[in-house]
Amino acid sequence: MALSWPDVAASGDWDTAGMNLVIHEFAHKLDMRGGDANGCPPLPPGLSLRTWTTRLDAAYAHFRARVQLGRHTSIDPYAAEHPAEFFAVLAEVFFADPLCFRREYRGLYELYVQFFRQDPAARVAARAGSGGRRSARRGSRAPQVVAARVRAGRRQRGSAPRRRAAPR
Fold first, then answer.
1. In the predicted model, what is the mean pLDDT of residues 128-134?
2. Looking at residue 3, what DSSP letter applies?
3. Which CA distances in Å does 105 have to 2, 33, 65?
4. Rounded-to-integer distance, Cα 92 and Cα 49, Å
5. Tens digits of per-residue pLDDT, 60-81?
6. pLDDT digits (tens, 9 = 90+) for 103-123
C-alpha cells in the first residue's frame, strides 16, 4: 500500500478533516484479505456471515437512499459509492467518532465491535463520565467541520461523488 504523505497529514485530525486516510485504506486491505473489496472481510470465528451481510446490506441501502435524496448525514456521503467504501468509511467513523456510528447504525456498530474486538464508544462514554476532554464533542460534530472533510484528490465532503479506481 502506498499513501500520499500530504493526504495522510491532512487527515490526521478527525475534528478538522473529518476523515482518516490511514484507517480507511487499511480497512480496504482487511476487506481484501478474502479477495476483492466488497464490504465483507473475512470474519473472525463466532461472527456470522449471514448476520454481517444482512446488517451491512440493510445499512448500506438505507445510507445510500439518504444520500441520493440529499439528506444530511454525519457520515461522509462517499460511503454510498460502493459497499467496500461503506465498510472503509465506517471503519474510520468506528475509531474516530464511534458515538456517531453507534447512533446511526447500532446493529452494524455491534458487528464492528466484534470484528475489531474493541468498543470505542464505550471508551468515549467512560471518558465523558470521568470528565475526559474531547468526548463531549464526539458524535455531534459541527456541520462546518463535517463540510471540511477532504478525500484523496482534495474532494470536499458534500460535493458530487468522484469515481475512483477500485481499491487494490
1. 64
2. -
3. 31, 24, 14
4. 22
5. 999 999 999 999 999 999 999 9
6. 999 999 999 999 999 999 999
Give yes or no for a contact between 77 and 67, defined as CB atoms under 8 angstroms apart.
yes
Q: What is the widest separation between alpha-carbon atoms in the chain?
A: 44
Burial of 164 (0-12, 13-18, 19+ CB in 10 A): middle
Q: 135 CB contacts (<8 Å, ≥6 apart)?
A: 124, 125, 127, 128
C-alpha to C-alpha distances, 2 to 5, 22, 146, nearest whole angstrom: 9, 10, 26
Per DSSP, the three-state class of 151 is strand
Q: What are the backbone angles phi and psi of residue 155, rounded to the nearest 5°? A: -70, 130
Q: Which residue has better confidence, 132 or 90? A: 90
| Whether the Cβ atoms of residue 14 and residue 98 lie closer than 8 Å to each other | no
Query: Any idea which residue has 458530487 for its cell?
Result: 160
